[in-house]
Amino acid sequence: MPKIGPMAAALASITLIVTMASSARANNSAPQSVVMAALSAWVNGNQGKCEDLLAIDAKTYPKDQTLAFFRALCRRSRWEIGDSFPLLKYANSLNPSSSYGKASYYIAAIDTNHDVDKNYGLLGKLCTQNPKNILLLWSAGFMSRHLERTEPKVAADRCYTGIAYYKRLEALLHGRGSAIVHQTYGNLLDDAEQYKPALHERLLAVKEEPMPWSLNALANTYDELKQPANAAKVRARLAREFPGQ
User: Fold this and answer.
1) Which of 18, 137, 212, 237 has the highest CB neighbour count under 10 A?
2) Alpha carbon of 99 to those of 36, 126, 190: distances in Å?
3) Torsion angle of alpha carbons 200, 80, 103, 147, nearest 10°?
4) Alpha-carbon separation of residue 148 from 31, 105, 110, 194 (angstroms)
């Protein structure tokens, strides 16, 4: 029997998510191929293309909750909290009782400091109830990173919980995903002083999006690993490709 490659396996996970979400979607929702195209771009490392597709698709299929939720997550994953709030509110309004409707509410509630611990726990419960849903796992992962930074008393717990979410996410994606996925996962691993696995995520983030934020993070992780020569090479690249940054 032929082996299934990482990309094919990751796309199989995507198909499962689209199929699972279809039961909660309205009759006027987007065709599965439309959702698959956006998810495939994201899994293949191109979140920018994914976001462009979602911006168009959301106008064509305004009642599709999967598209609305995914679009909100892409914005929120870039830490654009203010811009993501109306998108989360809209996604919730399409079906407040669905998994994506509930998750939209929990994330927005956390961002507005409303029952933070309770809503974070409820978001985690959704992940437990839907263990193969990559969108829910992703949201719980980056919200863990958010709370690690904003709740010092429980920072360590949020860090390790976030790492667990990202491990589950990357297992489903077979190591693939957007640069934002790898960057945020790498941040959590760095904070947990797990520098070798963090380096793997940093390299993937730079491969997908060689930007100042990904290059800086890679150089910093090389510093932690006591690899000054590699850190210097990355910073030289940063200076060359992004002068003044």
Assistant:
1) 137
2) 19, 7, 31
3) 60
4) 37, 20, 13, 16
Structure confidence by residue, pLDDT tens digits, 34-74: 889 999 999 998 999 999 999 999 999 999 999 999 999 99
Contact indicator for 92, 108 with CB cutoff of 8 Å:
yes
Q: What is the percent of the chain where pLDDT is above 90?
A: 82
Q: Kindly list the structural domains of the chain, giving each domain's residue range(s) and its CATH number in brackets, ordered by start.
A: 28-134 (1.25.40.10)
Work out the burial of residue 198: count CB atoms within 10 Å of its CB; fewer than 13 is exposed, 13-18 middle, 19 or more buried. Answer: buried
User: How far, in Å, are 44, 46, 52, 171, 197 from residue 10 at the CA level?
Assistant: 9, 14, 21, 9, 20
Helix, strand, coil in percent for the chain, rounding step 5: 80, 0, 20
> Residue 135 and residue 170: Cα distance in Å, rounded?
12
Q: Please name the residue that has the structure tokens 């309205």.
A: 26
Distance of CA 202 to the CA centre of its chain: 15
Q: What burial class does residue 131 get, using C-beta atoms within 10 Å of its C-beta: 0-12 exposed, 13-18 middle, 19+ buried?
A: exposed
* Least confident piece of the model among 25-29, 145-149, 227-231: 25-29
